[in-house]
């Protein structure tokens, strides 16, 4: 009985005794979606992502392993890692600018062939280096003691390598080969003195691009994208938070030379349990966070799982 009382008191101390404002929660160890630096200040983030998969969701949403597609002759596994660098600067109380720079560290397909079939399969590796850079900004729509809402937008440049330059023996380029423009809304809501609910949604228009390879030229337009995200975070102390992310992504059908490619649309849903820790040093704070990405479902999309580790310095 005493042990039960101790546990209940501990829970109550987290949910009632520890009280924070919405600003404290948004700036906490796991930041809210509408976090921005103070006016005239900036922050720098570095997020390292590791993902791998040995299966894909087909057009009916059924999971199939690469082994199934190759009739058991090999058991391929695809993996990738990337470093995402982001910088943000607040121009004034209502608006700011940002830049996101992806650096692709690894793209690899290990075939893992069955005994006796080694000579029939070759491991593939993709290009590494600079990906497609995004320049964007935000505008604060509203903010009060219980909620915060802003509009966000960005333009993605084709700074990475293009798919048309990737050889048959390579896995993938570092970029998409086209530019895009996107806009969306982000919001945070204070659900309890130490619980923050965050929501975001965006729409991206992928612009048509001209490609050429081996004497053949074509125009290609990737389908437009819808992104929805949510997060519940619990600020257990000034320095420690727990969170759970939800993500949904959908891309419409692509076009080549004006003709729609049937069944080229794709989507996925995923959750990411997270932990965050904040270090305060004078006027500078450092947020360290980690999470495990779990791909729950999808169509025409690889089932990617993996880890993300990040650090943000707020000046």
Give the structure's gist in a few sentences:
The chain is mainly beta and 315 residues long.
Describe the protein's architecture and organization:
With 315 residues, the chain is mostly beta strands. It has one domain: monomeric porin ompg (Porin). The protein has helices at residues 2-17, 22-26, 66-69; strands at 42-53, 55-57, 63-65, 77-90, 95-110, 124-125, 129-130, 134-143, 147-156, 180-192, 195-206, 209-213, 216-221, 225-235, 240-251, 255-256, 259-260, 266-281, 284-299, 301-302, 305-314. The protein is globular. The N and C termini lie far apart (48 Å).
Features:
315 residues, 12-stranded antiparallel barrel, mainly beta, globular, Porin, disordered N terminus, 4-stranded antiparallel sheet
Total of DSSP H or I helical runs spanning 4+ residues: 3
Q: What structural category do the secondary elements indicate?
A: mainly beta
Q: Beta-strand level of the residues, as a percent range?
A: over 45%
The level 1 CATH classification is Mainly Beta
Flag low-confidence runs.
2-17
CATH architecture descriptor: Beta Barrel
Fill in the CATH topology.
Porin
Strand order of the largest sheet: 1-4-5-8-9-10-11-14-15-18-19-21
Radius of gyration: 22 Å
- Name the CATH superfamily classification: monomeric porin ompg
């Amino acid at each position: 009985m005493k042990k039960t009382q101790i546990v209940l008191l501990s829970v109550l101390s987290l949910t009632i005794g520890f009280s924070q404002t919405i600003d404290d929660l948004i700036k906490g160890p796991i930041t809210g979606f509408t976090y921005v630096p103070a006016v005239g200040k900036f922050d720098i983030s570095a997020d390292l992502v590791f993902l791998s998969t040995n299966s894909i969701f087909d057009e009916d949403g059924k999971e199939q392993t690469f082994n199934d597609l190759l009739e058991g002759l090999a058991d391929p596994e695809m993996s990738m890692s990337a470093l995402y660098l982001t910088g943000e600067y607040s121009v004034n109380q209502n608006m700011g600018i940002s830049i996101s720079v992806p650096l692709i560290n690894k793209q690899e397909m290990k075939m893992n062939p069955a005994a006796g079939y080694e000579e029939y399969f070759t491991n593939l590796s993709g290009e590494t280096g600079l990906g497609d850079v995004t320049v964007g900004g935000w505008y604060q729509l509203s903010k009060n003691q219980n909620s915060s809402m802003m509009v966000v937008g960005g333009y993605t440049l084709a700074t990475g390598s293009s798919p048309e330059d990737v050889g048959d023996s390579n896995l993938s380029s570092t970029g998409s080969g086209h530019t895009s423009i996107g806009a969306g809304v982000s919001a945070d809501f204070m659900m309890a003195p130490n619980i923050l609910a965050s929501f975001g949604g965006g729409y991206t228009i992928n612009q048509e691009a001209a490609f050429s390879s081996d004497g053949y030229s074509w125009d290609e337009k990737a389908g437009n994208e819808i992104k929805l995200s949510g997060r519940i975070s619990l600020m257990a102390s000034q320095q420690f938070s727990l969170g759970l992310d939800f993500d949904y992504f959908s891309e419409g059908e692509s076009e080549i030379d004006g003709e729609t490619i049937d069944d080229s649309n794709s989507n996925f849903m995923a959750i990411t349990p997270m932990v965050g820790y904040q270090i305060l040093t004078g006027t500078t704070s450092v947020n360290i966070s980690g999470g495990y990405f779990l791909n729950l479902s999808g169509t025409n999309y690889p089932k990617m799982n993996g880890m993300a580790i990040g650090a943000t310095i707020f000046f």
